[in-house]
Amino acid sequence: MDLVPALEEPLKKVLGPPTAKVMAEHLGLHTVGDLLHHYPRRYEERGQLTHLADLPMDEHVTVVAQVADARLHTFASAKAPRGTGQRLEVTITDGNGRLQLVFFGAGVHKPHKDLLPGTRAMFSGKVSVFNRRLQLAHPAYELLRGDAEETVETWAGALIPIYPATAKLESWKIGKAIQTVLPSAQEAVDPLPDSLRDGRGLVPLPEALLKIHRPHTKADIEDARSRLKWDEAFVLQVALARRRHADAQLPAVARKPKPDGLLTAFDARLPFTLTEGQQKVSKEIFDDLATEHPMHRLLQGEVGSGKTMVALRAMLAVVDAGGQAAMLAPTEVLAQQHHRSIVEMMGELAEGGMLGGSEHATKVVLLTGSMGMAARRQALLDLVTADAGIVIGTHALIEDKVQFHDLGLVVVDEQHRFGVEQRDALRGKGKQPPHLLVMTATPIPRTVAMTVFGDLETSVLDQLPAGRSPIASHVVPAADKPHFLARAWERVREEVEKGHQGYVVCPRIGDEEVDPKKKKSAEDEAEKRPPLAVLEVADQLAKGPLQGLRVEVLHGRMHPDDKDAVMRRFAAGETHVLVATTVIEVGVNVPNATAMVIMDADRFGVSQLHQLRGRVGRGSAAGLCLLVTEMPEASPARQRLNAVAATLDGFELSRIDLEQRREGDVLGQAQSGARTSLRMLAVIEDEEIIAEAREEAAAVVAADPELTNLPGLRTALDALLDEEREQYLEKG
After folding, report:
1. Residue ranges in 446-533 assigned as alpha helix (H)
2. What is the DSSP secondary structure assignment for residue 470, as one 8-state letter?
3. Relative orientation angle of helices 307-320 and 276-289, to the nearest 10 degrees
4. Cα of 421 vs its chain's centroid, Å
5. What Å distances lie between residue 244 and 50, 157, 297, 448, CA to CA?
6. Among 667, 655, 644, which Cα is nearest to 727's?
7. Are 590 and 614 in contact (CB under 8 A)?
8. Residue 363's beta-bridge partner residues?
9. Are the beta carbons of 188 and 228 closer than 8 angstroms?
10. Ranges of residues in the chain whose predicted pLDDT is under 70
């Protein structure tokens, strides 16, 4: 059964081409159904006014307020040299705060007539600052006349919906458009099975749409929200449950390690015992590898919890069972680092076919885009002939030319950099679908993992291996207390004198062309300076506070060979201080590095700071991480940094991060430019709904994988997974 045509009706037929064009370009809305699912951000009450005191800078706002006074001034300017220029200043109030509106030139006449003291209206515009006061310049406005029939109808009830709007389309115009299409809501097909809806006391979809756009009471809004949240959670979980179900139907080769093969030989070499967590997670992975359908597992582990060790043992088990394993890393620096550390950990077990190699040995090859032709040709040959049991590489592994003899396991490091399609492309390299292990060091709260990686089973490593040292973290307020920054450099010098090394991290490289035409963001304007750069900072440190120490730089635009050489010198202890961008964020492992100074730390996200900090304290000596910022004490940025300094628990930090960020980012849509499929659901707040929806979805899919008896649900799924929105979980 198809979607009821009323909801598929293109907006240009209903609202006319000009409005439809703005809605498509600025809000991504194309059909009547899209518009009905464009929900109000909040509601204004007739009797209450917005708080003008806490308007966000540089954002497009809609406020309901009363005109306190209006004055017309004349002035002289280049365009009106005889003093004939006109400026209308209107002050509006909500009983608590006041806000200035300004209109210029010919634009003053209509507002001068309309906006008389005592008039109430909705005003919409971008908040700016003039003479240290907030103002709206040339705002659009809609008078709220209680008596006019049309207004009473349009703003039915006492609650005025305020919609996510743009400069080209004010909230009330969106509201009017929605009133036009609202009758079609009656024809919305309900995706929830009746039993689920009745069992949970949820209102039918047409009623929910009516109540969200035209509530008469706050209870109406609550009813509608609970219902629409369930829709989002359930449809998303059904999509994931179907993906899990389809994967479980695929055949895979069971990979069981030989009793005294490569894995046994490797374990015997280990100078330490695995943590309980590593043993538990390894068992989950080995159990999955032994089954005849593909493993799909997400391995989450704190920075330094030993994920690489767990992944390597899984790869060795597969090689033991006659297969090959591929590890996919997001950057060349990281691929080289993994290759180096795996070869070191394996010793003579990585020298398959070479003199001195152990009888169980295999070859471990590296494959990256910047390798020389000869080395690349040899690596490709080793993969086809099965001489290489393990390959570590970047996206270069996904290319068509790369052929495997028998790919049994794919390990993806730092999942958030790889999209679902890339995962699938690599899986397509096996004669039968290979097993898949996805690793991430960015701790993801359980609900986000269920929403984003719901097609994967999850394993968590939350204890650090013995011998890992604590990391002390402190915020260094460079603007309030410059002597703290001087002390930070002394601390780095002290660590070097003890025989250790340090990192200095900066947000920028410093050789970028600055485009004079490029508009600065409000934040840059506020800071009055661009973020600190590696090249400038390294130079200042070498000539100043770190004079006499060997300081080197590392950033993403260097030639791969140069990057590798810098990393080798640092790992060998020849360099005292490495000044770098976030290229060191993931996986760089130098146990002797104990100090890290992060410049302009407020420019990084919470989880990024946590990742960076995990580069120190990797050996037996304690780590030190200093977060340098010029942000004032009361600012949200400082609170964020204080949170990072206060805890080493990545899961706790990722919750803080999510609560501070907007919801849309959670599904990674922000990176891929598509709209988030979540409009109503807040991943952290609505944990229970997500967990319950996952159970309901699994039951529905188990009973009816093709959803034959649920046409409404099939329709909703097609809408969620349509081409245009890009695969909804695309994270690439």
Report:
1. 446-452, 482-497, 522-527
2. P
3. 30
4. 18
5. 47, 46, 11, 17
6. 667
7. no
8. 351, 388
9. no
10. 1-5, 45-51, 53-54, 58-60, 77-83, 146-158, 303-304, 353-358, 414-423, 427, 442-443, 446-447, 450-453, 464-468, 511-529, 585-588, 658-678, 721-732
Which residues, at least 6 apart from 272, have a Cβ–Cβ distance to it below 8 Å? 465, 466, 467
The one-letter amino acid at 242: R
**Farthest-apart Cα atoms in the chain, separation:** 97
Tokens representing 297? Answer: 């597992």
pLDDT at 714: 87
Cα 323 from chain centre = 34
Is 0.85 surpassed by the pTM of this model?
Answer: no
Residue with tokens 């894995």: 263
Contacts of 719 (CB under 8 A, 6+ apart): 3, 33
Cβ neighbors of 601 (< 8 A, separation 6 or more) are: 475, 609, 627, 628, 629, 641
d(CA 350, CA 390) in angstroms, rounded, equals 9
Q: Which amino acid is at 3?
A: L
> pLDDT value at position 662?
46
Q: State residue 525's pLDDT score.
A: 42
Strands of the sheet containing 407-413, edge to edge, are 363-367, 388-393, 324-328, 407-413, 435-440, 296-301, 457-461
Residue 162 tokens, joined: 């305020």
Total residue count of the chain as it appears in this document? 732
Using CA atoms, how far apart are residues 170 and 492, in angstroms rounded to an integer? 53
| DSSP label of 202 | P
User: Which residue is listed with tokens 């009746």?
Assistant: 194
Tokens of 148: 């006019």
Give me the DSSP letters along 262-329. Answer: HHHHHHHH-SSPPPHHHHHHHHHHHHHHTSSS--EEEEEE-TTS-HHHHHHHHHHHHHHTT-EEEEE-
